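Students often ask why inverse folding is considered easier than folding. One informal answer: many sequences map to the same fold, so there is more than one right answer. In these notes we will look at a single instance of the problem. The structure comes first.
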């Protein structure tokens, strides 16, 4: 006797899907994700570094139970300076990003959350602490569920409404994560990197929409890990958008650009964001949805139990 996994999804290759038609004839749904992250300064007894996935701003990262002042304060630059530079860029462009944040940031840096909330931008929970990955609780689902519940409770208290989307810190969720989120009323789960379109994840608590993330179209991989110049970054973003816009004439695509205030928020890189926003705004057939908006729309047009399989008709907006 086999036990049903807590979450799963079908493999549906692109040629076997119905055409996806976004509202208003949009070819591309562009999601600009600002990840406003907060790390614990140290964790007693932890010998692994607190910054999973890196990179380090200087080498020889210290154990997690020792305060690594250089690497911690490099990231804190995003909270003190970078996020405000990003807010100014988005305000000037008239584009609303989707902002993820850790529950601990809401406790330690409430000023940032209030500023985002006042702008009416989407806020998405991003686990309790950036360094406390849900995969650390593999095999301990009750503990994972408690971390998620604590994060969501803090979110509702600080933001003033329940969360509807979720992105795990370091995009590391477990097989239980989508099911727990569905149980707690989340409609959009955003950890997976495997698609350019939304799709349904089946969970023991019912379906939840995957709104895919990108680790390639991401300032960390472009600049901090990849050492791209600002000009290289602009060219890469434009090339990605142009290709998806072209393909979107046949079936809609998502472009997610992941941003970190301590990376793209540096003074020598902010021009990459400003130029890209201007470039995209000048194009037609572009949609800037929130994750909640995209997931809710997709549930409405795809049906709660219908994967995006081929048929005679198209999946269309209303």
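Output (designed amino acids):
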């Amino acid at each position: 006797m086999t036990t049903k996994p807590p979450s799963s999804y079908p493999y549906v290759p692109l040629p076997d899907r119905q055409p996806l038609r976004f509202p208003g004839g949009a070819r591309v749904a562009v999601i600009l994700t600002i990840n406003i992250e907060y790390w614990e300064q140290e964790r007693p007894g932890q010998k692994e570094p607190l910054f999973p996935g890196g990179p380090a701003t200087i080498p020889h990262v210290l154990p997690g139970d020792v305060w690594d002042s250089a690497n911690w304060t490099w990231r804190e630059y995003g909270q003190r300076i970078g996020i405000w530079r990003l807010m100014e860029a988005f305000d000037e462009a008239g584009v609303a990003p989707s902002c993820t944040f850790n529950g601990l940031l809401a406790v330690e840096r409430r000023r940032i959350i209030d500023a985002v909330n006042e702008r009416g931008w989407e806020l998405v929970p991003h686990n309790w602490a950036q360094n406390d990955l849900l995969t650390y609780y593999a095999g301990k689902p009750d503990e994972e569920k408690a971390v998620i519940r604590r994060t969501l409770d803090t979110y509702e208290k600080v933001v003033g409404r329940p969360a509807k989307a979720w992105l795990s810190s370091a995009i590391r969720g477990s097989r239980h994560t989508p099911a727990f989120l569905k149980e707690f009323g989340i409609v959009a789960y955003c950890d997976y990197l495997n698609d350019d379109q939304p799709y349904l994840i089946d969970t023991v608590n019912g379906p939840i929409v995957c709104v895919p993330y990108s680790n390639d179209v991401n300032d960390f991989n472009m600049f901090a890990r990849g050492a791209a110049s600002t000009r290289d970054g602009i060219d890469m973003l434009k090339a990605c958008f142009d290709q998806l816009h072209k393909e979107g004439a046949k079936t809609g695509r998502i472009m997610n650009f992941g941003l970190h205030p301590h990376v793209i928020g540096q003074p020598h890189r902010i021009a990459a964001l400003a130029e890209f926003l201007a470039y995209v705004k000048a194009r037609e057939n572009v949609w800037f949805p929130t994750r909640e908006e995209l997931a809710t729309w997709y549930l409405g047009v795809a049906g709660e139990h219908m994967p995006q399989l081929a048929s005679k008709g198209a999946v269309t907006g209303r």
